[in-house]
């Protein structure tokens, strides 16, 4: 065997050995990661129940105030979706020893459909549990769709600096027709139905379509107004309804004068002084492990961006 052949064989053997070592290292790291994941899941599943058991919490919490959070945009698949909030409210109303329910709201609004479903659920639960009062308490924001929900409560409370109101409807988008012309792009669109390309952002605005969209927004706005009037009743300042329903936002202090708010108070104050049960227990349904992980990885980014830009469906914002 000459020197070149010996060198080639030695090189191939070194490469093969290095590959074996790399695979072993990868397997070891894989086992480490799997073990860490199992430990994490074990902790989530068993740590809290074990603590509760050790604390001897079998007798229940006693008389208390139930809290349900409505936080962030009110959208399908968001933490403030109708499905999540309604499930949370049902848990709160059906729990033993509940003296009253507080909706802790910190939301700019969102979908009129989701907000309407939560408002309807509040009416149903109030009728089926007449002895359990439910009050809405504003955080930083209780505007638009969030106020739509709050209007279904017995009373509404806010901080003097909370923002409330914004009783209006918005639907937005963009127009790209001039951009296409400058880029030399030809728009090709094929439809069956004169209005199938309704408010297409790449086509020139159609006056009839814009008028139709405005009519829909007006209809949803009137639904919103009717819900607020029904919920607030005589407490609403009727002399200033035009301002109240214009879409303007008010501080909690101004909202009190307008009848949008009943009093200035926080959750703990309402639990202690209004409901009469100082201990607050959170009944908000929490997202599952997989949902939390995927949200943190940014899968919800597109949905959030679209909601912030006001693209697509009408929004109570």
Please tell me about this protein's structure.
Residues 131-273 form the Peptidase S49 domain. It comes from Sediminicurvatus halobius. Pfam families: Peptidase_S49 (PF01343). One of its GO terms (molecular function) is serine-type peptidase activity. The protein is an alpha/beta fold and 317 residues long. The protein has a single domain, classed as Alpha-Beta Complex (2-enoyl-CoA Hydratase, Chain A, domain 1). 50% of the residues lie in helices and 14% in strands. It has helices at 3-54, 82-94, 112-128, 145-150, 177-183, 207-232, 241-244, 252-258, 267-275, 289-296, 301-309; strands spanning 64-71, 98-107, 134-143, 155-158, 163-165, 249-251, 263-264, 280-282. Strands 1, 2, 3, 4, 5, 6, 7 and 8 form an 8-stranded mixed sheet that branches. Strand 2, helix 3 and strand 3 form a beta-alpha-beta unit. Helix 2 (82-94) runs parallel beside helix 3 (112-128).
Helix content: 40-55%
Contiguous runs where pLDDT drops below 50 for at least 5 residues: 46-56
Question: What is the number of helices?
Answer: 11
Structural class: alpha/beta
Q: On the 0-100 scale, what is the average pLDDT?
A: 81
Largest sheet: 8 strands, mixed
Gyration radius, to the nearest Å? 28 Å
What's the SSE pattern? Answer: HEHEHEHEEHHHEHEHEHH
Number of domains: 1
- Shape, please? flat
Q: CATH homologous superfamily - what is it? A: 2-enoyl-CoA Hydratase, Chain A, domain 1
Would you count the extended β strands for me? 8
State which percent range the strand residues make up. 5-15%
Distance linking N and C termini: 83 Å
CATH architectural designation: Alpha-Beta Complex
CATH topology: the name is 2-enoyl-CoA Hydratase, Chain A, domain 1
Overall CATH class: Alpha Beta
């Amino acid at each position: 065997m000459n020197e070149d052949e010996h060198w080639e064989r030695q090189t191939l053997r070194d490469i093969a050995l290095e590959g074996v070592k790399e695979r072993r290292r990868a397997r070891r790291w894989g086992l480490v990661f799997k073990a860490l994941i199992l430990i994490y899941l074990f902790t989530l599943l068993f740590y809290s129940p074990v603590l509760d058991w050790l604390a001897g919490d079998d007798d229940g919490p006693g008389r208390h105030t139930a809290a349900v959070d409505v936080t962030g945009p009110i959208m399908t698949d968001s933490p403030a979706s109708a499905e999540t909030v309604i499930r949370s409210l049902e848990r709160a109303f059906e729990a033993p020893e509940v003296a009253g329910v507080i909706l802790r709201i910190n939301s700019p609004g969102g979908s009129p459909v989701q907000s309407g479903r939560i408002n309807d659920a509040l009416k149903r639960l109030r009728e089926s549990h007449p002895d359990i009062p439910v009050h809405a308490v504003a955080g930083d924001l209780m505007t638009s769709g969030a106020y739509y929900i709050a209007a279904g409560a017995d009373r509404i409370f806010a901080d003097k600096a909370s923002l409330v109101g914004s009783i209006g409807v918005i639907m937005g988008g963009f127009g790209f027709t001039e951009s296409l012309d400058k880029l030399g792009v030809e728009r090709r669109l094929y439809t069956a139905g004169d209005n199938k390309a309704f408010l297409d952002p790449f086509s020139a605005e159609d006056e009839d379509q814009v008028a139709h969209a405005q009519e829909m927004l007006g209809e949803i706005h009137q639904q919103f107004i009717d819900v607020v009037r029904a919920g607030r009743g005589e407490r609403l300042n009727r002399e200033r309804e035009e301002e109240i329903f214009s879409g303007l936002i008010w501080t909690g202090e101004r909202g009190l004068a307008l009848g949008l708010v009943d009093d200035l108070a926080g959750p703990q104050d309402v639990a202690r002084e209004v409901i009469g049960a100082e201990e607050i227990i959170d009944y908000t349904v929490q997202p599952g492990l997989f949902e939390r992980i995927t949200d943190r990885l940014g899968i919800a980014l597109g949905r959030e961006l679209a909601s912030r830009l006001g693209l697509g469906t009408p929004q109570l914002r």
